[in-house]
Specification:
With about 325 residues, the protein is an all-alpha fold. It has one domain (about 30-320). About 75% of the residues lie in helices and about 0% in strands. The chain has 14 helices and no strands. It has helices at about 10-20, 35-60, 65-75, 75-95, 100-110, 115-140, 145-170, 170-190, 205-220, 225-235, 240-265, 270-280, 285-295, 295-320. The longest helix is centred in the first third of the chain and has 27 residues, at about 35-60. The two termini are about 35 Å apart. The model is unreliable at about 1-5 and about 30-35 (pLDDT under 50).
């Protein structure tokens, strides 16, 4: 899940996160949303999630031998690779507050998935986690209506364009570009460990452009919305609580649209991989907790950045070779 740790008290871990421009550690809140726009957004998320659940259930019910299908998925190599990927990626995301998409896509490309299948799998799996996260942030009072609305439409437009582009280009042609993008994102994560946080100079500027770019690269590269949008806003000194909640709520809608475009355009929907990512992610929370206990944030950023850079370099070498 992407329900962030939003404790703003003075403690060593939180101080380190703030110095690096990362989300703060978590604390349970109890504020409820009151604005009508946010209530509409929350009910939209819940209805869309219910619709997706019913659609998936209906598709499974139409299968002549559902038990055999489930057994077939459990015996699939793609499923178990995805379980491992989902576990690692969600643990990284839980420990750092970002990088689920770029971590999981990097690993999936290394296991032989095409860029479209990798990104489709990640975004379909993220529909549920981002939906639950968005509703929780609304209920906890972590969403700025203005920031959410400024990100929403540009993010959806960018995600739609990115998903269409990735699904329409031959995998052999686009794979080097996706691997190169993930390599740059790995370097970006690595650089976070050595950059001081800047202070904000007023209201966030160029939010629509940031949302457009973030949505596009997130769909094309299988991830990047958090590193591009969240860390840009939080890293320049803007309120972590409202920024993270608003960005996560907007992420559900662009993820939902991306997943729909991929489902429509990708010939073989990668359901075993999607199921594996979801199952692996369910068991990631304890691992994330251990990672934050064993390693300080700067060390974790360096390790995650190096892993993404190494895997992406391998993917780029293989794609160009």
């Amino acid at each position: 899940m992407k329900i962030r740790d939003l404790d703003l008290s003075d403690n060593p871990i939180n101080a380190e996160h703030q110095a690096l421009g990362l989300p703060p550690v978590e604390r349970e809140l109890s504020r409820a949303a009151e604005h009508p726009v946010l209530r509409v957004a929350m009910w939209s998320v819940l209805l869309l999630l219910a619709g997706v659940t019913l659609w998936l259930g209906a598709r499974l019910a139409q299968t002549h031998d559902s038990v055999h299908l489930v057994a077939q998925v459990l015996q699939s190599e793609a499923f178990w690779w995805a379980v491992l990927v989902g576990l690692i990626a969600q643990a990284v995301d839980g420990a750092l507050g970002m990088a689920y998409g770029i971590t999981s896509t990097s690993f999936l490309l290394a296991t032989g998935s095409s860029p479209a299948v990798a990104s489709a799998s990640v975004h379909i799996a993220e529909v549920f986690t981002t939906g639950v996260s968005g509703v929780a942030h609304i209920k906890l009072g972590n969403v700025s209506r203005q920031l959410f609305l400024r990100l929403l439409l540009p993010g959806v437009v960018g995600a739609t364009a990115g998903a269409w582009l990735l699904s329409s280009i031959d995998a052999a042609v686009i794979k080097p570009f996706v691997a190169g993008y993930l390599l740059l994102m790995g370097l970006y994560v690595l650089s976070k460990a050595f950059r001081a946080r800047r202070k904000a100079s007023g209201e966030p500027r160029h939010v629509a452009k940031l949302g457009l770019v973030g949505g596009f690269v997130d769909a094309v590269g299988g991830g990047g919305w958090g590193p591009v949008v969240t860390t840009t806003l939080v890293g320049t000194g803007h309120d972590p609580r409202m920024t993270i909640g608003s960005v996560n709520l907007a992420e559900f809608f662009l993820t939902f649209v991306s997943a729909g475009v991929f489902t429509w355009l990708v010939d073989d929907t990668p359901w075993p991989t999607v199921a594996g990512l979801v199952v692996g992610g369910l068991f990631a929370a304890p691992l994330a907790a251990q990672m934050t206990r064993w390693l300080n944030t700067r060390t974790l950023l360096v390790l995650v950045g190096l892993v993404i850079v190494a895997i992406s370099s391998f993917n780029l070498w293989r794609a160009l070779g």
